[in-house]
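Repro case for the chain-ordering regression, as requested:
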Amino acid sequence: MTSPVQPVLQVRALAKRYGDLEAVRGIDFEVAPGEIFALIGPNGAGKTTTLRMVATILKPTSGEILANGYDAVADPDSMREQISYLPEEAGAYKNMKAIDYLKFVAGIFFDDRERMARAIEVGRKVSGLGDRLDDKLGSYSKGMTRKLLLARTVMTEPALAILDEPTSGLDVINAIELRERIKEMARGGMSVLLSSHNMLEIEYLSDRVAMIAAGRIHATGTPAELKERYDAENLEQVFAQIAHDGKEVM
Amino acid sequence: MRRFLILLKKELSELLTLQTLLPFVVVVLMFAGLGQTLSSVSAEVETNINVVVADHDGGAFSGAVMAALEQAGLEPVVTTTVIDDSSAARVLEDADATIALEIPAGFSAALAAGEQQQVESWARIRHFSFVGNEEIEALEGALELVNSTVAAAIATEAAPDVPAAPLQRPVIRSEHVMVGDKTAEAPAMAVMSFVSQQTMFIPIVLFLVIVFAAQMIATAVATEKENKTLETLLSYPVSRTSIVTSKMVAAGLIALLAAGAYMFGMSKYMSGIKTGLGGGVESEAALQASEAAMRQLGLTFSTSDYLLLGLTLFASILTALAIAIILGAFAENVKAVGTLIMPLMVLLLIPYFLTLFLDLSVLPDAARYAVLAIPFTYPFITGPNLFLGNYGIVWWGIGYQLVWFAVFVTIAARVFSSDRILTMKLSLGRKKK
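-- result from build under test --
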């Protein structure tokens, strides 16, 4: 067991290079237990690359990622037990019934039957899809799929949920519902690392925010701290300033 | 292991969809249906083929012609119309026939007087497939019979003391065939046609099964990319090896299922052809005799031969799967799969066509070694080599293919455990800006 003060996620000097392109140029941050930590920045800033590295599906060029002490590069299999990842553009197996998809994921994560059953129950509840869980995923709307995928991500009650644009493409009502659920899970002790373009969402959800541009983190703090530091009325203005500075850096 | 089985189950349920299975169900039904059609065509052929006979003679020998036609399974429709090129079409149509035969006046008398006689025939070729024009063959047989009957009659007339048979057919032969070190009494042509049936049709099955397996696995990878499920799958706590092997095993299992189904369809087809081309009591006996000769010559597969053939095919499927999973990793969507597995298709088509049309030993050395370097050559040459008892090359082929498999499966595992599985892609036919 890790002590409560120990961060769930530690990222140190993380860098990623694709050929000549430096997507991430050495970033550091930590996520505490139960904390919702957001990465915000313009397109191409390196948010998704960072999330993918934390999700162990891309290998860092250099730097270190630890989740509950497990190293993403040295021991990805143990690291994957700690995390759960929702990509921005995610889909589901269209020939599967939604409930079978939840069962499939529960089976992948857990050996113990009771643990599996609990995960499926959490997934069922978080999805809020009720009877529609017996339908094939091919018949799902975008909103329903996204709800199910979020449910899938948090059902294993991971130490860290990695959510890339969790409400992308959703209508207002669906987005509000999803945000509410994410907040609820975090209150239950789950840490969240997320990225979003939606400043309203970020302000509402996040405990702390890192502003990222051109592969570097330019500022980290609570939304209130950042607004004060940049003398801005809202995060959008902070974002605009940093995006502007980021271009100068590039 | 448990997680592997969960993945395997998922792969199977993803692959076993109507969309993916339909093509091979259609092929199996097509073969079985074709076999059915062929045997029913022949049944029809046997019972009811009209032959228009314009008999301007009405003598004893024209009667012998009718008898011979009936014996050959043809139904003479006798007319007294004079047939020529301009009227033949109408005559055939009226009698619902494809063949007409005209026996000239004075036919019997002239033959009896020892003069050579000429009959004229018109045959309408309905189509160019290799079955369905049997009536033309039947007519050949009937005229052969007429010749020997007439010859016997004339011989008996001219030399009543000499037995008719040697005069009709002074030289007959007893044929022996040698294959490898085995000898049997059988017509060489029959042996050749038996073997060519196998060398024609087994490769079709092999080809389809290997292509099917390759398509399955490349589709399995491409579907994950297209449906945007790959990223999530890669973040699950399962080893990359399990992901790769579960896809390969699923595709392999379905390919074997397809192989079984193809074999079933093919055997229906072959038995359809046998009844279609054979037919008649006489050929049934001949068929049995030739089958006994094939066994004697070692031209039928024993259980261990089937095992070796199966093992070779299995090694080919594994190799194809290992190559195709890498090719599939380049695909951004399922549509691209067809194009991406082209290199594999070429590797298959070269040995397929070469072994279909010629013996590899006639190729110049360099070309032969090049063909033998292709792993997929071996399934196509295993059948003939088993017939000839060349077990060395069969085992070499299995081993050689497994080396290819080992190399490519290692590459596949590398691709799946690196960034490349997400980042590598070929944009085909469209340019991204």
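Ordering looks correct now. The radius of gyration of chain A is 18 Å.
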